[in-house]
Amino acid sequence: MNQQRQPGIKKLIWIGFILPLAVLACSITVPTSQLNKAISTPLAVVITAVPAQPQAPAVVPTLPKVVQPQSVVDEQSLLIALYKQVNPAVVNITIYTPQQGEELPLGQGSGFVYDQSGNIATDAHVVHGADQIEVSFWDGSIEQAKLVGEDLNSDLAIIKVEKLPPGSHPLPLGNLDNVQVGQTVVAIGNPFGLEGTLTRGIVSAVGRTIPALTPFSIPQAVQTDAPINPGNSGGPLLNLDGEVIGINAQIETSNDSRANSGVGFAIPVSILQRVLPELAQNGHYDWAWLGVRGTNLTPTIAAAMQLPIERGAYITSIIEDGPASKTELRGSNDNQMENGRLVPVGGDVVTAINGSPINSFDDLLIYVALQTSPGQQINLTVNRDGKMLEIPLTLEARPANLQTDVTIPIIPTPPSP
Predict the structure, then answer these.
(1) Which residues lie below 8 Å from residue 192, measured CB to CB, with a gap of 6+?
(2) Per-residue DSSP letter, 214
(3) What dotted CATH number matches 288-397?
(4) Is 128 a catalytic residue?
(5) Is 233 annotated in the active site?
(6) What pLDDT digit, counting tens, does each position of 351-389 carry?
(7) How far is residue 407's CA from residue 4's CA, in Å, rounded to a whole number?
(8) What are the start and end residues of each CATH 2.40.10.120 domain in the chain?
(9) Active-site annotation holder among 136, 168, 204, 233
(10) 257 catalytic per annotation
(11) Which CATH class is domain 1-24+70-284+399-417?
C-alpha cells in the first residue's frame, strides 16, 4: 500500500505497506564498436618538361580508437557481482488481514535477512497491524513470519521466520561516517511486487530529517536518487561493498503521483545499529526525549532578542509534563516584528549538551537520539537574554501517546497478483 504525508513543503509517500498506516538506475554505457577508418589522398597529375621527381607516399591519417572506458566495465562487473552476492538476502513481504471472513493480501514490501536466527529487518509501516506475514525468498520458497518487535518512532521492525533457505545470509551494516554525497549506491527490493529489482543511483544528501509514524522525527536520513517505489519499503540501500547504509522508507513526490521523482529517503544505518538489536532481543526500543519543540536560531530571531550569538537550537515551547517542564528551561513567550517578520521571542537557545556544541535544532535531536538513554542526566548550556546558563535535565522515555495534530492519510495499495 502507499502512504502519503506532508514533510515540510512537499508531500512524502511511504514506500511499502502498513495497516492501518498504508504504504507509503542509471544506465550503463553501451560499448561502441572500434573505429579505425583509413583516409586516402589521390595523387596529383604533374605535366612538366623535365623528368618528374618521384613523389613521397601519401600520408594516411588514422583516427583514434573509441573504446569503452575501463571504469564503466569495472562498475558493470561490480554491480553484477554485487547483485549475486546481496539478492539472496533480500525478501518480499506480503501482509494479510481479515476481510469479509477470510484472510486477504493487503500489501507488499521488502526486507533483508538480519541474522542467522531468521530475523528479518524491514520498515514498521510494512508490517504494522498485519494479521499474517508471509515472506518470499530469492529461490521462490515462502515462509510464514511472526512480528518480533516494531518501533514506530524510527519506522523499523523485526520479523522472524523459522528457517532460512540455503543461500540466504545476513547483510552487514555499514558506517554512516563513511557515507559521502556523490557515492554510488544501489537499492534492492520489490517495487510494485517485482521481486529482486536492483536500481542504481547516488547519495544525494546526508543528514536529512524525515517524519516518523509518530509526532517525532527521524534524524540523519540518507537521501538518494536511486529509484525506489511502492514496494521498496523495508529493503536495503547498499554501498558498493554490499553493506547496508540505510533502509528505504519514503519518497517525495508532487501532487497525487506515486511515481519516483528522484528524491528518496532511507532510515540511516546509525539508527539501525541502535534499534534493530533491541527489537530482535526485547521487541521494543526506548528513545530518550527532552520534551521541547523548537527551530534553528536565525539571524532574525537573534536580532529581535538582541542575542550575541548566531547559531543554536531555539526553544519555542515546552511540552507539558515532559522532562523539560521539570527544569528552568524556557520556551518562547511572545512574538515580535523584526525586519517585517513576526518571530517568536523569549525562548532559551541551547548552544551545547554536556560540552558538545549544538548549532541547530537538528543537532539537538541527533545528540539526544543517538548519544543518550532514558534516565540519563544531561547538562544544557543555554543562552538566555545574552547570558549563559547551565541547566541540568534528566531524560525520560518518549511517551507512547502524545497529543498532536499530525494526521496520516491512508491510501491502500493492493499487492500485485
Answers:
(1) 229, 230, 231, 416
(2) S
(3) 2.30.42.10
(4) no
(5) yes
(6) 999 999 999 999 999 999 999 999 999 999 999 999 999
(7) 10
(8) 1-24+70-284+399-417
(9) 233
(10) no
(11) mainly beta
